Automatic annotation (TrEMBL):
EAL domain residues: 1-248
Superkingdom of origin: Bacteria
Pfam families: EAL (PF00563)
InterPro entries: Cyclic-di-GMP_PDE-like (IPR050706), EAL_dom (IPR001633), EAL_sf (IPR035919)
Coiled coil: none
Source organism of the structure: Altererythrobacter arenosus
The name this protein goes by in its record: EAL domain-containing protein
SUPFAM superfamilies xref list: EAL domain-like
Amino acid sequence: RALEGDLVTALGRGEIEVLFQPQFSCADGRMVGAEALARWQHPTLGEIGARDLFHIAEKAHLVAPLSRQVVAQAMQQASQWPEHLGLALNITPEELAERSFAQDFASGIGRSNIAPSRLTLEITEDVLLRDLDLAAEALAALRHIGLRVALDDFGAGFCNFRYLKELPLDAIKLDRSMVVGICRDERDLAVLRAIVGLAHAMGLEVVAEGIETEAQRDAVIAEGCSYWQGFLRAAPMRNDDMLRMARG
Ligand code: G
Ligand code: G
Ligand code: NA
Ligand code: MN
């Protein structure tokens, strides 16, 4: 409860920080962009991760202002990157359920210095526990102006294939749990192979998350994933480190 109060001041004081985790092309290993990940640098409790941060924000009814701040900060920083790099932003189901989401988001892009085609929205399947049609409509409107949409954490939840069919998507992000066992268990590899096949059959690209070893990276490349992300090459980092890495 005290934390919910602290969050109000945190938003005003710039305690919310955005880190960036690079993503790499499976084709040539080059960095293609990064995912923005929010953190709260709490003055006495130290760092609070995004999952806890958004839980607190939900209880405090502050998801919308928090998310606006994170997105604006991420876009502002990403506008300093070389133009070939994309920016992936996590969007909560609550936000997608807002009637004005697409329009507000588009206005935010307009105020920033970043081309819509450089942006990917990462959504989770909880969206669908809400209003699927409304979410699909908002996503379609944003894709119309050039954004990409990725279904995040695929394989961690219910994996309802209806989402793949009914949401306007460009990619799926395989959850770390789908990748972690692929080099030691044939069945894990079989599941990954089937999901990649399904994604490709639907015209979707696949991003593999949580890559920690060279063997995992090589396996997801061999299985036809398009991009990968993971501690093997880069943990979430501050913008200045991101810029340094981008300039190689
Ligand atoms: O980096 P970390 O382990 O704290 O991320 C935990 C979860 O929080 C991840 O699932 C990530 O997608 C989500 N997350 C990180 N940053 C944001 C954000 O800015 N907005 C939303 N909605 N979710 C985020
Ligand atoms: O739910 P989402 O996929 O957005 O969560 C991303 C979270 O996963 C971030 O908190 C990030 O720090 C973490 N993460 C990113 N890469 C790796 C990895 O290679 N291994 C592990 N264990 N966690 C990772
Ligand atoms: Na994400
Ligand atoms: Mn994810």
